[in-house]
Amino acid sequence: MMREALLHPLRFAGDHRFTRAQASNYLEDELDAHSRERVEHHAHACPPCMRLLASLRRTVAALRTLRDGPSSSLPGVSESVLARLRDEPARDTGRDTGYAGG
Amino acid sequence: MYADRLHAVVRRLVDDDHDAEEVIQETFLRAWRAIDKFNGDSQFFTWLYRIGVNEASRRTARNRKRGPVVRLDDQVDPADDRPGPAQSVQHGDLRRVLEQAVRDLKPDYRAPLVLRDVEGLSTTQAADILGIGEAAFKSRLHRARLEVRSAIREYLPEDDHP
Ligand SMILES: [Zn+2]
């Protein structure tokens, strides 16, 4: 498994750093073919990097589930915003209708 | 719906519901005052989020200066009741630890992660909202993911296949 590391230690170390730095880009399929191959080739020879890719993928998947979770609602914000707007100095006439014509 | 999503983002960037509400109010007020500068939805959406994120970071910076915020309701005690990797992990546990891991990120790393990974915005859109280049955005996002991964690692099943 670590044969690669013994045969070409410098290249292995470089690929290791590259894989750890590019793991997110790899998972998002944002690497060019060469870089992608470099990551895959290295990960197959380096168990820690294989585990990093797997756990990072699961981390991102878990984060996606937070979006639909219970989020506290916003009671009364629109009312308070409207109240503050009523206290604003008068706006230029015509400005309110300028949105559509912008 | 803009307002709900914006609130979800802001709530994750500030310390509590009260701060979130004030930040949202301020954001909508500023949006209202400048509404006639906009004629496109996506431009407005980005701009609204940018205000919200900036207000949120100003708010948390101000709170940091005043001292630590004590949150009695949802602290995670690291030494106490965490199940070991061998135990079956309830979904609620992962969620709780995940939420805490996101809160523990520094603001510079938290915002990219919330916009991209939680809210699912594109890299381009999220970087635009934060006013940073895509390369810087990706590097912060990656750092944030690595930190969250470390925090929740024992809650993830072991598997060597990416
Ligand atoms: Zn490696």
Automatic annotation (TrEMBL), chain A:
Q: Residues annotated as region Disordered?
A: 67-102
Pfam families reported in the protein's UniProt record = zf-HC2
* Range of residues in the leader sequence: none
Domain Putative zinc-finger, chain residue ranges per copy? 20-49
Q: Where is the composition biased (Basic and acidic residues)?
A: 84-95
Q: What is this protein called?
A: Zf-HC2 domain-containing protein
* UniProt organism field: Paraconexibacter antarcticus
